[in-house]
């Protein structure tokens, strides 16, 4: 029985493509996606997907490649064209590979030169103009197809998770992402237009010499148009590299977010608490973006983020680094480790730190919260009798219940680690309860 079934399968495999519906689909290279058929070159598609997976493994690898929350569907594609669904976070690791413009042009020219004339044309002039038109058409397509793929497969920003939208706007500048994609699509349209025009002119040649001249002229014009607009491709390459290097945040794993004024010691604590290795220097705004580390506790993996410092000012006056910190707190389910430096060495006065701290504590009151006073070895404690109000108490002891630590002397670090571990376990329970509530 098994042998007969195997033989039947082999017989079906040997059926010529033109003799069955499934064979015709295979011959045309159709890929089934959501009930629609899309013509693709099967082997090229497979190679491209493999390369894309290899290039997307930047940063920390998350289990199952994207163990992100699945409540929000991410739609990728241009309006009016098929969209692909992805998880709510991790779109940047799924961006298509963008080739440098010089490589796209070199590959297109090489393939176009190898296009032969149609067989069976005896007349020399007809054969030459046929070859010229086909080569111009091939060059146009080899340049336009990758540009079309880029514009279709880069995610539409409006369908991204709010955190990823904030990263695009604050890292690349508001509107720059869409502008780069628009320029790439504009370049594609220009190449298609000039390519069709030159192929048509070559096809109307009256002699072999005229066909050769129009072919050379057409190749130069198409190449010139691509050169003029190639900056759009290079800008898109920069966008892809920048976004793909962004840290991946897993919504199903508890995240500890270190917040505070610039230069208060957040990065030093990230190094002690997690696997993260941020730059540690004695000047403000050392942290230039969101840096990710991990804590392994009881065989569970937790996330730790180091964020740029916050200054005392209104949101409209904040720089993009500060807005990145607010984006993490606003859009991600984080537990907050707020770091205070009352020694006077960080460059932000305790009064300003207190004002910013009260604002953040009230604004993100739904987050689990732990206060830490760093550099406690440099502090001089005032007598309790002199403490008249909250500001005076803050300047001497920090917020009520804050842990005092010193990275230099290692004072308070064991207690800090224990409290952090307990808070992350509580955060995990909170995430699971919210997930169960949504499912029910």
UniProtKB/TrEMBL annotation:
Gene3D superfamilies: 1.20.120.1190, P-loop containing nucleotide triphosphate hydrolases. GO terms for molecular function: GTP binding. Keywords: GTP-binding, Nucleotide-binding. Residues 321-377 form the Nucleolar GTP-binding protein 1 Rossman-fold domain. Pfam families: FeoB_N, NOG1, NOG1_N. Residues 255-312 form the FeoB-type G domain. It comes from the Eukaryota. Coiled coil: none annotated. Residues 92-250 form the NOG1 N-terminal helical domain. PANTHER family: NUCLEOLAR GTP-BINDING PROTEIN 1. This is Nucleolar GTP-binding protein 1 isoform X1. The gene is LOC120261279.
């Amino acid at each position: 029985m098994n042998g007969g079934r195997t033989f039947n399968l082999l017989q079906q495999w040997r059926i010529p493509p033109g003799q069955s519906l499934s064979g015709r689909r295979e011959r045309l290279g159709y890929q089934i996606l959501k009930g629609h058929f899309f013509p693709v070159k099967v082997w090229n598609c497979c190679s491209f997907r493999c390369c894309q997976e290899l290039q997307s493994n930047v940063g920390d690898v998350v289990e199952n490649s994207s163990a992100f929350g699945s409540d929000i569907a991410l739609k990728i594609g241009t309006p009016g064209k098929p969209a692909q669904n992805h998880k709510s976070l991790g779109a940047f690791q799924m961006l298509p590979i963008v080739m440098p413009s010089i490589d796209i042009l070199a590959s297109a020219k090489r393939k176009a030169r190898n296009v032969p004339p149609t067989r069976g044309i005896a007349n020399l002039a007809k054969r030459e103009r046929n070859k010229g038109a086909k080569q111009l058409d091939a060059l146009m397509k080899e340049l336009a197809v990758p540009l079309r793929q880029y514009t279709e497969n880069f995610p539409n920003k409006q369908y991204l998770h709010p955190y990823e939208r904030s990263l695009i706007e604050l890292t690349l500048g508001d509107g720059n992402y869409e502008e780069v994609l628009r320029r790439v699509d504009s370049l594609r349209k220009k190449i298609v237009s000039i390519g069709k025009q030159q192929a048509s002119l070559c096809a109307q040649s009256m002699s072999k010499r005229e066909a050769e001249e129009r072919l050379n002229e057409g190749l130069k014009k198409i190449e010139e148009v691509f050169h003029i607009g190639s900056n759009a491709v290079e800008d898109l390459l920069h966008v892809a590299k920048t976004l793909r290097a962004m840290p991946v945040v897993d919504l199903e794993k508890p995240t500890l977010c270190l917040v505070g004024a610039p230069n208060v010691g957040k990065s030093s604590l990230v190094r002690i608490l997690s696997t993260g290795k941020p730059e540690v220097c004695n000047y403000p705004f050392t942290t230039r973006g969101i840096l990710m580390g991990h804590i392994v506790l009881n065989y569970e993996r937790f996330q730790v983020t180091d964020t740029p410092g916050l200054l005392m000012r209104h949101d409209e006056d904040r720089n993009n680094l500060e807005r990145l910190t607010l984006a993490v707190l606003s859009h991600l389910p984080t537990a907050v480790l707020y770091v205070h430096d009352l020694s006077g060495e960080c460059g932000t006065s305790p009064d300003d730190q207190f004002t910013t701290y009260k604002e953040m504590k009230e604004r993100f009151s739904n987050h689990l919260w732990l206060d830490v006073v760093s550099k406690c070895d440099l502090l001089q404690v005032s007598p309790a009798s002199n403490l008249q109000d909250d500001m005076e108490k803050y300047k001497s002891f920090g917020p009520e219940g804050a842990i005092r630590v010193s990275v230099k002397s290692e004072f308070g670090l064991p207690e800090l680690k224990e409290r952090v571990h307990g808070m992350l376990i509580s955060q995990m329970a909170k995430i699971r309860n919210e997930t169960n509530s949504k499912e029910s």
